[in-house]
Amino acid sequence: MTKQTITTIIIIALVFFGIGFSFANYYKPSDNTFQAGWEAAKQRLTETGFAPTIDGIEIISVRGVIQEIGDNKIYLKIQPLSPLADSELDNRIIEIDENTKIYELIEKNTYQYQKEMDEFNQKMQEQMNNPETITELIMLPESFVKQEINFNEIQVDQQITVVAQEDIKDIKQFKAIEIMIQFMPVTSSVI
To answer: What φ, ψ does residue 76 adopt, rounded to 5°?
Structure first.
């Protein structure tokens, strides 16, 4: 290459560098970023009701599937609290101590549950017939019984509900005050 060719290449490079630098300063893409677009989309989804917000709501329990157990901790994959929630919080670390109550939810005997439902329906009917005599709130009977179990009875892949004493909406690791292992209803198959 000749000296004149090298000089021409350098001059052209400097001209294009100057043009690029000028355009870069003139057209600042600060409002045209992925994050700005994501925030606008989240706001639009929230405003239209497609993705309800959980701002201002205290969350003290989460439900999910146990991924791992060890060192008095449960690694839990939860059902997201909101479609727009931080995906890093889909995996929570649950701390267990001697004050944590652990229960297995056992499905009630069908006859026992039906008896409780009949009593509930009867009390409801009495209150509807005589509304002036209402003295207590009647609670719908639970379809399960809480049976206390030990930490070592918990297993990977079980579905649990974890209750905390504080708002855990944005907390990755927290201490559980109560854990309930979900019962799996017995289903019969017809062949």
So the answer is: -120, 130
- Measured distance CA(46)–CA(150) in Å, rounded: 42
CA–CA distances in Å: residue 98 to residues 27, 59, 101, 167: 60, 23, 8, 21
In three-state secondary structure terms, 13 is helix
Do residues 14 and 89 share a domain?
Answer: no
DSSP codes, 160-179: EEEEESS--TT-SEEEEEEE
Q: How far apart are CA 62 and CA 157, in angstroms?
A: 16
Structural domain includes residue 49: yes
Strand, helix or coil at 106?
A: strand
Do residue 95 and residue 52 come from a single domain?
yes
Domain span at 151: 38-108+143-181
Q: Which tokens go with 103?
A: 């229960």
Considering its fold, how many domains does the chain have in total? Answer: 2
pTM: 0.64
Low-confidence ranges of the chain (pLDDT < 70): 1, 16-32, 45-46, 49-55, 134, 183-191
Stated length of the chain: 191
Q: For residues 177 and 164, is the Cβ–Cβ distance under 8 A?
A: yes
